[in-house]
Amino acid sequence: MTHADPSTLVRVTERVWLWPHHPDPDRVQASVGMIAGDDGCLVVDAGQSPAHAHRVRDGLAHLGFPPPRLLVYTHHHWDHVWGAQEWGVPVVAHEECREALLSEAAKPWSETYLRSETAREPLLRPSYSARIRAMEDCWESSRIVPPDQTFRTRHVVELAGVAVELEHVGGRHTPDSIVVKVPSEGVVFLGDCYYPPPYHLRRPGDEPDLAMVRGLPDPAYHMYVESHDVPRSRQEAEAALNPPAP
Questions:
Q1: Lower Cβ count inside 10 Å, N or C end of the chain?
Q2: Among 3, 60, 62, CA closest to 33
Q3: Which domains does the chain have, with CATH numbers?
């Protein structure tokens, strides 16, 4: 696997590709994953905006990828779902994700609304400033897309040539978090599952949930892909979790 900037698709395995996260944390731009079946591809997270999703779709078309067939949300946060309208395919997510997005869709999203909410609650500034930057004045044509299909604990998607397992893990970042497993490729998409709560909800002492992530490495999987960092091999993940004693 090679690393690249977030304007270039990265090949993780034969059937798994990644549009990387943006390294600037102020952009809050999560990675977008692609799992290629013989009859179409499954997209893991939608991108942070229609423009972001459009760039990813162009990259897929340039590589001759099979057409998108299904979109999976790892959770409901904006940087994972606001690009969904650009994909135009059915969406699958955890049942709590649908509830959260129906609530989000009812809000009057606009630059004016974001600025007024930031004035009310300054801790929202990092997230809401990134949303203003990402949306590039396309508020009137954008919409939040709740999932078409939901599940509670586990769901399997069968593409021609590859099966994808969706598993609910929850966590403090958000209770609807799932992981996306591709057993035949040895790859797991972690989303943000072990991250601490969003900045405006964070309390002193909130840290990454290392107890959760220590339970994720599995000999059946050799590559772990999270949304806001580089992919890690199982050995790299285990080394990060268990640093040598000084």
A1: C
A2: 60
A3: 10-241 (3.60.15.10)
What percentage of residues in the chain have a pLDDT greater than 70?
95
Please measure the distance between the N-terminal and C-terminal CA atoms of the chain and give it in whole angstroms: 31
- Contact 57/64 with Cβ under 8 angstroms? no
Distance CA 73, CA 177 (A): 9
The residue with tokens 């599952």 is 193
Kindly report, residue by residue over 124-159, the tens digit of the pLDDT. Answer: 999 999 999 999 888 989 999 999 999 999 999 999
The span from the CA of 100 to the CA of 54, in Å, is: 24
Question: Residue 194 is encoded by which pair of tokens?
Answer: 């072990």
Q: Of 42, 200, 169, which is closest to residue 97 (Cα–Cα)?
A: 169
Low-confidence ranges of the chain (pLDDT < 50): 1-4
CA distance 186 to 2: 17
Q: Give the HSE-up count for residue 148: Cα atoms under 13 Å, Cβ half-sphere.
A: 9
Give the C-alpha separation, 78 to 126, whole Å: 13
Would you call 54 helix, strand, or coil by DSSP? Answer: helix
**Residue 27 CB neighbours (<10 A):** 17
3-state secondary structure 163-217: EEEEEECCCCCCCCCEEEEEHHHCEEEEECCCCCCCHHHCCCCCCCCHHHHHCCC
* 94-124 residue pLDDT tens: 999 999 999 999 999 999 999 999 999 999 9
C-alpha dihedral, 101 to 107 to 113 to 114, nearest 10°? -10
